Each structure stands twice: as structure tokens, then as C-alpha cells.
């Protein structure tokens, strides 16, 4: 692909369902401008200390990047510097001209939408256009909705799928299970990749009988994910 407009796009994502939306926005802009696309996430922990939920999102983002021409995934783990400094460094190295950020309060990225951090970015990389994208909100654990997600699998059994927390040769889908708080049964939501599509389906007593995608952000009143 010839970059006729001399543009380069950087999408900054954090864990949660909004990352995929931001990446798709970046893909559309990159395709329109025939520009390279970089997908960046930052974590203060080393990669081998990340939990199953975070690793799942990273795997999703890598897969999306692999499916788009001239898209590259960048993971900055064990990073103690301010997020704005990391973004600026990547922007300089990759000759980025446009940055896409999600307007979210998730973890360290809540700083991004505050004026001081935006000013830091504008000061450090004044040659870059910043796009602040409004995003839907996510599950907050202390609202009594769902427990922290854990890695799980779906095994085909007749006309339905059985939830399992152990990987076996019969595992069909791998994803993250969010258990409803206050129940002794495996009721909740299972999020996984089916081909190029991300699905979130209902789990009732450890079984999935319907692959209808559930949009939890609109079906319930949800808030931002807590800092860890």
C-alpha cells in the first residue's frame, strides 16, 4: 500500500469492550488515507503477570491487527512512565500523524481525557492530531453485577454448549466468563471470538443454548470498570 497522504494512525486501547470499537475506527481511517495503522496498549505490569481477561483482550487485538493490511500491534508492558510519555515516544518512532483515544475512565487511561494530560500530549507531540472518541461504558464490579472475568471454554454437547474451566481436546471456543455476583450457579456472560466477530452470550447454569449477541452496555445500566 502506497501512503500517498503521508499519514500514520495510532490507536491507543485499554482492556474492555471498547478497544475493538476504537481499532475499527482506526482501521477505517487508515484505509481511507491508505496509511499504516499502529495499535498500542500500555500496562505497568509485566506481560507474564497479566490475568486471563487482559491476555484475552490482547489476543483479540493482535488478531484484528493480523487481519488488516499494514496494521501493527504494539504492547508496552512493565511500563512505569506516564502513559502520555509512552504514547509520545511511539508516535515519534512511527512518524504518527493522528492518534485515536477513547474517552474512558478505565485504570491509568482515565488521565488521558483530562486537560493536563491532553496538554502534555499536545506539548510533546504538537505535530499530531488527537481524536478523542466517546465510548460506551462497562461493568463495575462493586455495582453487584459480575465478578472479575476468568478464562473459560465451551464444549459442544448435543444442541448446546457446556461451560468448562479446563482446556480439553473437545473445547470449541475459548474466551472469558463473567459470573453474576450473588449466585451459586455458573450464570453470567461468556465473551469470545467466533471467526472475526466478538460475541457475548448468556450462560445459564453452565450452559449456552443461544449464540445471540448480548450488548451488555445497552441492556443494563453499567459503569466504568474499576482500577485494579
What features would you describe in this structure?
This protein has five helices and eleven strands, in the order βαβαβαβαβββββββα. The chain has 228 residues and is α/β, with parallel strands linked by helices. The protein folds into two domains: 9-134, HUPs (Rossmann fold), CATH 3.40.50; 141-219, no CATH class. The strands form two sheets. It has a six-stranded antiparallel β-sheet with strand order 10-9-8-6-7-11, with helices on one face. A five-stranded parallel β-sheet has the order 3-2-1-4-5, with helices on both faces. A hairpin with an 8-residue loop joins β8 (171-179) and β9. α3 runs parallel beside α4. The longest helix has 16 residues, at 18-33. It is elongated. It comes from Pallidibacillus thermolactis. It holds the Pfam family Usp. This is Universal stress protein. Residues 8-126 form the UspA domain.
Amino acid at each position: 500500500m502506497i501512503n500517498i497522504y503521508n499519514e500514520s494512525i495510532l490507536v491507543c486501547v485499554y482492556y474492555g469492550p471498547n478497544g475493538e470499537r476504537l481499532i475499527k475506527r482506526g482501521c477505517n481511517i487508515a484505509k481511507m488515507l491508505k496509511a499504516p495503522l499502529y495499535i498500542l496498549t500500555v500496562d505497568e505490569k509485566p506481560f507474564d503477570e497479566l490475568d486471563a481477561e487482559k491476555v484475552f483482550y490482547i489476543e483479540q487485538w493482535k488478531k484484528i491487527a493480523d487481519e488488516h493490511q499494514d496494521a501493527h500491534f504494539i504492547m508496552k508492558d512493565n511500563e512505569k512512565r506516564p502513559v502520555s510519555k509512552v504514547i509520545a515516544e511511539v508516535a515519534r518512532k512511527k512518524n504518527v500523524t493522528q492518534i485515536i483515544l477513547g474517552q474512558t475512565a478505565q485504570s491509568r487511561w482515565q488521565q488521558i481525557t483530562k486537560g493536563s494530560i491532553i496538554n502534555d500530549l499536545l506539548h510533546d507531540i504538537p505535530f499530531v492530531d488527537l481524536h478523542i472518541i466517546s465510548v460506551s461504558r462497562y461493568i463495575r464490579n462493586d455495582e453487584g453485577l459480575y465478578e472479575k472475568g476468568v478464562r473459560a471454554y465451551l464444549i459442544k454437547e448435543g444442541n448446546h454448549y457446556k461451560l468448562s474451566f479446563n482446556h480439553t481436546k473437545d473445547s470449541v471456543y475459548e474466551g472469558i466468563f463473567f459470573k453474576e455476583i450473588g449466585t451459586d450457579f455458573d450464570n453470567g456472560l461468556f465473551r469470545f471470538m467466533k471467526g472475526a466477530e466478538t460475541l457475548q452470550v448468556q450462560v445459564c447454569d453452565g450452559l449456552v443454548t443461544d449464540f445471540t449477541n448480548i450488548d451488555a452496555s445497552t441492556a443494563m445500566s453499567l459503569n466504568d470498570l474499576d482500577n485494579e
